[in-house]
Design brief:
The complex is a heterotrimer of chains A (about 240), B (about 425) and C (about 250). Chain A has about 240 residues and is of the alpha/beta class. Chain A is about 35% helix and about 30% strand. In chain A, a hairpin with a 2-residue loop joins strand 4 and strand 5. Chain A is globular, with a radius of gyration of 17 Å. Chain B has helices at about 5-10, 15-55, 65, 85-95, 130-135, 160-170, 205, 215-220, 240-255, 265-305, 305-315, 320-355, 380-405, 410, and strands at about 60, 100-115, 120-125, 140-145, 155-160, 175-180, 185-200, 210-215, 230-235, 255-260, 360, 370. A six-stranded mixed barrel of chain B has the order 2-3-8-5-7-6. Chain B has a two-stranded antiparallel sheet with strand order 11-12. Chain C has a domain at about 5-40 and about 120-220. Classes of the chains: A alpha/beta (about 240), B alpha+beta (about 425), C alpha+beta (about 250). The interface of B and C includes residues 153 and 187 of B.
């Protein structure tokens, strides 16, 4: 039986942006494969292309050149609606600023991916409650984001990213707005959930504490991969 | 959780802005509701004034009488083509919703007092008792109205309209001589005693009109026929229904008579109605445009502030259609809430204005002031709210396009 | 030819021409006089007439009493119109009705059309009161254009058309000073006998624009007419008039 395709397979990804009068090459010919269940941390200084890489992997943006496969599916020819549906069912996102809907409670925020997918209410609720319990917020279901701490908000965001059992979760600087203790807890949570569920994880970060725990570390500089190191499988 | 619940919550996020938007929508709604009430008041008032001013709800007349009818009553030449009308009248008065049926004889001639100059008149032979039953009030200025009992020959009373009386220099108690030509051209002259001076309510008609009891008019015109029968109903909304019943009754009798509803005999009413409706639509368009502009501005700002949130939703798999549904729901709810508030405010405004007991100056051509009594128009309430919802949905289009066309990464990076 | 002889010839020619002209003029003058139906009409008379519209739907029997040029009384003979009169006196028309205590002065436009036309016809004396302005002849019809002499009441101008063969008038146009036709009377039938007496005319009030009226002249009777008939205050003489002698035509 042939091995399953990697969750992400990128070949020669190129992406440039116009900033004022200049063109910035954010990614220059990046090749990458991320297997199922793998936890990839992407490191690099500011402007190295980390966020751009995550955006491309998450089909939030299109490369100028190169190809990307998600679970063996070439996403290049897909239209906007197909890409949206792809994200809906196979990907989860965690953002630096949490990006929770302020008028929804923690439970309702976690329900959103299920709600937009048309999951019935009772099922939706049950799964969201379970997701929040999994991130340790089983007692904060009714709280709105403004009643939660930064760490709690990010836990809610993580629960939202996982509730629909995606193939991969993309986290862009998930600890960027958290204090170090909270940050460590969040990373620990992410890695634990990855171990429990086998969810592929791609985390962009410049936090050294996180990077030290990276099972696999991809280093970018000026849009290129300068290092791709795997740590011993201790996690 | 559904788009509507989410919409209400989002509206509550910025209470001040939402309150202002609600106020704009409510004001627009209230303005439309009050204006509709004024327009309906005008239509109803004019309609009932025309009906109870002598048109009645229906007219039964010979075809030749209907055909020779000109636009201006003053120019119409009289005809008395309806014979055997008493039996017909009796039958019509037995129909449901018919209050009374009065016979009219139209006259055209000259009137003079003593050796004074002759003045042309347009006259009406009426049945005073029937006029009372039909609620056709005669607005007396002086003297007395016509008695219900038909006068004996030689004792002919006449009511002169105010302008005509002024031209003749006649007052109650004076004798005037009426001169007119019969249908065959033969002249007839008849003395009549002025019992009272009245006003038709229309300045131009007041210079020419006079009224006689039907018996006197018949003696002047030397005919036993009448020009038409006027049918008064207990409910104006029954006009079409009763018109059909009258036509059936006439067909059963084999009478080739024409039944004409009041609306077909009141081109002035239709013209006024058309004018007012046009003005109202114009006003409604202005109000809608203002609300669109104001609401559009608000919604654009709202979306602008929530671009990152909307980008996040798109990132996690919400389609542009679902984003649009969210924003449309919000806009629609704003329209609905604002419209409902406005309807309430409009209802209160109508009641308040009516309680003031205001009077409007006499309309063009009329003689007397009218009491302002705005109507509550259910269709206007519903229509205004629906319009506001529609307007808000239209106002949401531009913000929605903005929210769905922006690249997801740009939206995510929006602060 | 010697000058004197030429002059004499010219004179004779002119005299002969003038004589021919004078003879022609005299002949026309005689024709005009012969065609005047009322030249020898009595100054006081009673005329019985029936007016009817061209299709005969309405027939109005009337009686006209004339006393000289200034007084005329029209009495309506139909049963429903008994008691109604039109009096012409003092240059005006007055309508008297049983239902009105006082007479009503009528503007000329309101005077009964047929009566006014007949009245005008009875009063007109083309050969006595008018001068011939021009004449023309065509197809046996001689047309006289006449202008009223000073002091003549009635129409300022007339066009009087006569049949040369019968020497009877065919039609008369009553015209105003600007020569516009106000009234047209056509002679349709004549009573047998020596006197020129019209039996039927058609009158049309051009100025009023009313439809033509046919007038059947039933009788013209010379008789004394009491002045009391024309009294606007006292109607007793009128009330004493004998009832209609022949059954009046019903309307």
């Amino acid at each position: 039986m042939p091995p399953p395709p990697p969750v992400f397979r990128a070949r020669g990804l190129d992406k440039s942006y116009r900033l004022g009068g200049t063109t910035v090459r954010a990614l220059a010919g990046v090749d990458l494969e991320v297997d199922a269940g793998e936890a990839l941390f992407v490191a690099g200084p500011s402007g190295s292309g980390k966020s751009t890489l995550l955006h491309l992997l998450g089909t939030l943006d299109r490369p100028d050149a190169g190809a990307l496969e998600l679970d063996g599916t070439d996403v290049g020819p897909l239209g906007e609606r197909e890409r949206t549906l792809l994200r809906r069912h196979r990907l989860g996102f965690v953002f630096q600023d949490f990006h929770l809907v302020p008028v929804l409670s923690a439970l309702e925020n976690v329900e959103v991916p299920l709600w937009i997918a048309g999951v019935p209410r009772r099922d939706r609720r049950r799964r969201a409650e379970a997701a929040l319990a999994a991130v340790g917020l089983g007692d904060r279901l009714a709280h709105r984001p403004d009643a939660l701490s930064g760490g709690e908000r990010q836990r809610v965001a993580i629960a939202r990213a996982l509730v629909h059992e995606p193939r991969a979760v993309l986290a862009d600087e998930p600890t960027g707005n958290l204090d170090s203790a909270t940050a460590a807890a969040i990373v620990e949570l992410l890695l634990a959930l990855r171990r429990e569920r086998g969810t592929t994880l791609v985390v962009a970060t410049h936090d050294p504490a996180l990077l030290a725990r990276a099972p696999r570390l991809l280093t970018l500089r000026d849009g290129r991969v300068v290092a791709d190191e795997r740590a011993p499988e201790a996690w | 959780m559904n788009v509507f619940a989410l919409g209400w919550r989002n509206l509550a996020r910025n209470r001040r802005r939402t309150a202002l938007s609600l106020a704009i929508v409510a004001c627009g709604t209230a303005a439309l509701v009050v204006t509709a009430g004024f327009v309906r008041f005008s239509f109803d008032g004019l309609r009932e004034a025309m009906i109870h001013g002598g048109l009645g709800h229906l007219e039964v007349a010979a075809e030749e009488e209907v055909e020779r009818r000109g636009v201006v009553a003053l120019d119409r030449s009289p005809s008395a083509a309806l014979e055997g009308w008493e039996a017909l009248r009796g039958e019509l008065e037995r129909l449901p919703h018919v209050d009374a049926v009065g016979a009219n004889l139209h006259l055209l001639g000259l009137v003079r007092r003593a050796d004074g100059a002759a003045v042309s008149f347009v006259g009406l032979g009426v049945e005073p008792d029937r006029e009372l039953r039909m609620a056709f009030p005669t607005k007396l200025r002086s003297g007395r109205g016509l008695a219900a009992t038909p006068p004996a020959p030689g004792d002919e009373p006449v009511l002169l309209a105010a302008g005509l009386a002024r031209s003749l220099g006649a007052a109650p108690g004076d004798t005037v001589t009426l001169l007119m030509a019969r249908a065959d051209g033969m002249l007839n002259a008849m003395d009549a005693r002025v019992t009272g001076i009245y006003t038709t309510g229309v300045a131009e008609l007041d210079t020419r009109m006079l009224k006689l009891p039907l018996a006197s008019a018949a003696r002047l015109a030397e005919t036993s026929r009448v020009s038409n029968l006027v049918v008064a109903l207990d409910d104006t909304s029954r006009t079409a229904e009763v018109a059909a019943a009258v036509r059936r009754a006439l067909a059963a009798r084999g009478d080739a008579l024409v039944v004409t509803p009041w609306s077909a005999r009141a081109p002035f009413y239709e013209q006024v109605r058309g004018l007012y409706t046009g003005i109202f639509r114009f006003l409604g368009t202005i109000v809608a445009l203002l609300v669109v502009l104001a609401a559009s501005n608000t919604l654009v700002m709202t979306v602008f502030e929530r671009l990152r949130e909307l980008g996040t939703l798109r990132a996690i798999g919400t389609t542009p259609g679902q984003i649009a549904a969210l924003l449309f729901a919000e806009a629609g709810e704003l329209g609905l809430a604002g419209g409902a508030l406005g309807a309430l405010a409009g209802w209160a405004a109508v009641g308040g204005i009516n309680a003031l007991g205001l009077r409007l100056p006499a309309p063009p051509g009329a003689v007397e002031e009218i009491d302002l009594e705005l109507a509550l128009v259910p269709e206007a309430f519903v229509g205004a709210v629906v319009l506001m919802v529609a307007v808000l949905l239209v106002a949401a289009i531009v913000p929605i396009l903005r929210a769905t066309r922006i690249a997801v990464v740009d939206a995510l990076g929006h602060v | 030819m010697k000058p004197a002889r030429a002059a004499l010839c010219a004179f004779v020619a002119a005299a002969l021409g003038a004589a021919r002209l004078a003879a022609a003029d005299a002949e026309l003058t005689r024709l005009l006089a012969d065609s005047d139906p009322f030249a020898t009409a009595p100054s006081e008379m009673r005329v019985e007439l029936v007016f009817s519209s061209p299709r005969g739907e309405a027939r109005v029997p009337v009686e006209i009493w004339r006393k000289g040029e200034g007084l005329a009384l029209v009495r309506f003979l139909a049963p429903r119109d008994l008691g109604k009169y039109v009096v012409r006196r003092d240059g005006g028309f007055y309508f008297l009705s049983p239902r009105a205590a006082e007479p009503v002065r009528l503007a000329p436009a309101l005077a009964p059309a047929g009566g006014a036309a007949l009245d005008a016809l009875l009063a007109v004396r083309p050969s006595r009161d008018y001068d011939v302005v021009t004449t023309s002849e065509h197809s046996g019809q001689v047309t006289f254009d006449l202008a009223a002499r000073a002091g003549t009441p009635g129409a300022p101008r007339l066009r009087w058309v006569v049949s040369r063969a019968t020497r009877r008038p065919l039609r008369v146009e009553f015209r105003d000073a600007a020569d516009a036709v106000e009234r047209l009377v056509e002679f349709k039938a004549w009573r047998a006998g020596r006197r020129l007496e019209p039996a039927a005319i058609v009158a049309k009030e051009i100025a009023r624009g009313s439809p033509p009226l046919e007038v059947e002249i039933v009788a013209i009777e010379e008789r004394p007419v009491p002045a009391a008939l024309f009294d606007l205050k006292d109607g007793s003489a009128r009330a004493a008039l004998p009832p209609p002698q022949r059954p009046p035509e019903a309307l």
